[in-house]
């Protein structure tokens, strides 16, 4: 796996961890919601596997390259939104 692909995979993994951590730390979930959050976490790991697969295929597969580009844009936007929310939550004003 080329370095750029490893970076995106690591970023995606960190983003998924951030999403789950943000959701579980800010809200006190009833048991059934906590189970759903765990299921979401499993789904996110499945998406991670698809990202890795698309990264491997992108050189020869236009559809994979296009999907991966769109996914990266969404992932970076999600990361920015989570960072903004964390900054606003920690601001005492």
Automatic annotation (TrEMBL):
InterPro entries in alphabetical order: Rx_N (IPR041118)
Gene3D superfamilies, A to Z: 1.20.5.4130
Protein name: Disease resistance N-terminal domain-containing protein
Domain Disease resistance N-terminal intervals: 13-89
GO MF terms, alphabetically ordered: nucleotide binding
UniProt key word Cytoplasm: no
Keyword field contains Nucleotide-binding: yes
Keywords for the protein's UniProt record, in alphabetical order: Leucine-rich repeat, Nucleotide-binding, Plant defense, Repeat
Family to which this protein belongs: Belongs to the disease resistance NB-LRR family.
GO BP terms: defense response
The organism's place on the tree of life at top rank: Eukaryota
Organism from which the protein derives: Oryza meyeriana var. granulata
């Amino acid at each position: 796996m080329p370095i750029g692909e490893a970076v995106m995979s690591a970023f995606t993994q960190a983003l998924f961890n951030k999403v789950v951590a943000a959701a579980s730390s800010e809200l006190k979930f009833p048991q059934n919601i906590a189970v759903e959050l765990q299921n979401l976490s499993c789904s996110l790991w499945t998406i991670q596997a698809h990202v890795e697969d698309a990264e491997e295929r992108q050189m020869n597969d236009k559809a994979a390259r296009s999907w991966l580009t769109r996914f990266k844009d969404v992932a970076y936007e999600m990361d920015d939104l989570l960072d903004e929310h964390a900054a606003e939550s920690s601001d005492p004003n």
